[in-house]
Amino acid sequence: MKINKLISKAFILSVLFLASCSDDDSPQLPKGAYENGILVSGEGSGAGTGSISFISNDLTESENLIYKKVNSVELGIYLQSIAFDNDNAYIIVDNANTIAVVDRYTFEYKNEVVTDLSTPRFMTIVGDKGYVTNWGSTSDETDDFVAVVDLLTFSVEKTISVGNGPERIISRDGKLYVSHKGAFTNNDIISVITLSNDNVEEVTVKDRPDELFFNNSGDLVVLSEGRTLYDTDWNVTGNTLGSISTIDVTSLNVDTELNFADGEHPSLMVIDGSTIYYALGNDIFAMDANATTLPASSVLTAEGYLYGMEVNNNRIYATNASFTDVSTLNIYDLETGSKLDSKSVALGAAKIYFN
Amino acid sequence: MKNTLFIIVYFIGICCSAQNDSLVNRLDLVVIQADKKLDKHSSGYKISRLSDSVIVRNMESFANLLRFNAPIYLREYGSGGTSSASFRGTSASNTAVIWNGININSINNGQTGFNALTVNLFDAIDVRSGGGSLEYGSGAIGGTIHLNDNLEFSANRQIRNQAIVSVGSYETYRGIYKLKISNDKLALNAGVSYNQSANDYPWLGTDFKNINGAYENLGININGAFLINDVSKLKFYSTNYWGERFFSGELPNPTSANDKYQDFNHRNLLIYTNDQNRFNHEAKFAFLSQEYRYFEDKSLDIYSFGSSKRYLVNYNVSYVLTDLNASISSYSEYESAFGKTDRIAKKNRRQFSQSFIYDQNIKNTLFLDAKVRKDFNSDYEVPFTYALGVKVKTTQYVFVRANGSKNFRVPTYNDLFWPGQGNLDLEPETALQAEFGFGYKNNKFLIDIGTFYINAKDKIVWTPNGDPARPGIWVPINISEVNNKGVELVLNYKENFNKHVLQFDLNYSYTEAIDAATNKQVIFVPKHLANLNIGYNYKRFSVFYQQLFNGEVYTTESNSNDFVVPHYFVSNIGGDYTLLNSTKQLLKIGIKVNNLFNENYVVQPRRPMPNRNFNLNINYKF
After folding, report:
1. Is A97 within 8 Å of B256 when comparing Cβ atoms?
2. Strand A88-93 and strand B102-103: pairing?
3. Could you tell me which residues are beta bridge partners of residue A270?
4. Are B93 and B108 in contact (CB under 8 A)?
């Protein structure tokens, strides 16, 4: 078994080596069955394991449960997200406190991180370190952290303590940017961590910040969902505002806030080129990254339970997630809003990646 | 050679099975049940009775007791974990657990956790399939499981003791002590049960153990009956339970498991009965409290909880129509329940229900039972429900039985009040069902073949986008309709020849539970389910063998073959040897091997069940 793995590793390495050494005009060898396609990760639920589906870019081929098929084991629940570097995919399963490391093109198991994680959520990679947001114990709002994973030894080398409920994490110029949605409660901060000294600064935004990325001007854009307020009997008494905030990463000031109407809770923000997309319920909206007002009308209305979204090459990919069954990925033409295709994908389909 | 045989038989294990408590049978006893309704009003229904000698064979858990002996499907999140039971493809909240005549399903989630109570102290457990149990209220759609304490008056003063101790694999220790004191006016039972286990069995096919699976629990029951005069009696029942369990994890990384769960249950019941020639009166007062605490992180003293208190007053009167060999009964019950959780402020639900039951025995040939019930609930409208059961003995041995009923299940506190997600507009689930069976019974042999049909409507399902006003939020709604149909077989055979006693008990069922919207089998409903018990007894030796077959279940609505729990066969073997058997003492020593063939199986995905394991027990009555 081990020898087989060694041989296959050696083979892959030699292929990569050959590929990288070969002349530009020689044909590129395929890196694996799951290259040139779309990966959809599903969280899983009591109805079935978290899993990953593959769909070829030309939409002619699709395959579910690719990790289980290649490795004959299940990922468990709940598959939260996947991070990638040049060679590997890092599959983060929060309830299992596990990061499974696979070859990103063959999905063959390489290693795993199973200790020192506590409800891991998202990871970003800088060099040969992975930075993973962790909720810690969800009954303790003070033990949340970012784990620093050595990607050569696949072990957690240290942790950086942060505020409650860290969610998405991205990096740029020696700093990490973490949105704190608040785990099972609520939060309203972005942590900015300086990698050289682990110093943590906080920027306050609107409630429940989730997706974040850099726009073309180098500013940090954050989507805050806003929250619903309840009285002690859990009757709805009001809402806090959802917002798209733009933060100057030098001054850490919130430069602009595009606030949503009271009671609107936006989600699933992505950027493609200079266009920002987000969802309100099942309606998907598009706006220029420099826009000063929110768009009045949506570009299309997605089917079913819109739970994951990406935009690429003039297509909108939107999951209609089921947690009791396999889900559906709907692919829409961005120009016309018409549905190009739909595919059966992972149970609890949540995240979409381009491989 | 004889000695070798002795040793083999001895160590393979031999048991008490057929040697039915000889001690007890010789005594002149009057058995008093807390709940007379079941025996009286079950014409046309299928009941299997698990006696104390059967209970003793599966002391490891209530879930295992039912799995190996009753026509029920058990789900279990790893051995000792959260467990639920369902009849005939209905849901777990359609199984009502009845303690001495009172429905004890949780008002928070509408179910009973089958690893959250021990039943080793009960004298008998009755498992009744079908929806005819109207008098037990909400949730009795699929069937009812009755936990019964039997009190006994005796002509002479008696003191009887029973102690059972057992030691098993994975540091499992169990002890039971029961005391029964009686004379012609007074009967008093007391019992203590204690169980503990590290429960860290190795997971077959992996390098893991069942980490974080330990449990410990203590139960104390005290019951009494007092004969006030020739016609009236006072009875009381009290059961108390304290349990702590850890919840094991699942593959691929069970080391992430870190949760702890505690249960505290206290149930108290006082009954006054007055039995005249024609009129029988019964008044009941009950107070029940139930609390769970869930620690997401066992190292912290932070937990979520749910607790409830229930007060019940119940008055029953029945009148005997001597000429017709019939009786008419009225059951009136008022209940006030207070429930709260860490996330739901205290809510009070009040309910009044009135049932009438008519039963008649026509020439010992036709037995019939007709029931109607109407509830008035402070939270929602409960439909009028009814049931009819008929049994006809066409010859001395052949019988035909039939029943039909309408039942309901009320929404739970979680369904109604869960913060931000509950739905106050829910209506009770309702089910219409019919069953027809026939069989043959003589003093050695019983066969019963039955077929059933259940149409359940307005089933409560939690769905994202269930409420258009709350997009993306999981909300319970009355949505699904399910049609269940199936066939059930019961086969019992008992043979005595020269001191050899052979006993054979088989349950088999085939169940289709089809969701009307998708036309697919409902998730977690095995089509095939069978269990078999074979017992053999010769003089002081006894041996038993248990076999379970649980068919494959789908876990997704579309019945995807990618998401199934495969079928499993599990076998246990056990037996005992009677060291002492006199009028005053009975002493048995037994061993049991669970999962004899070391089957690697799961009941819930990614949660391996115990491998082959052993248990040594001593049962002493004096």
Report:
1. yes
2. unpaired
3. A277
4. no
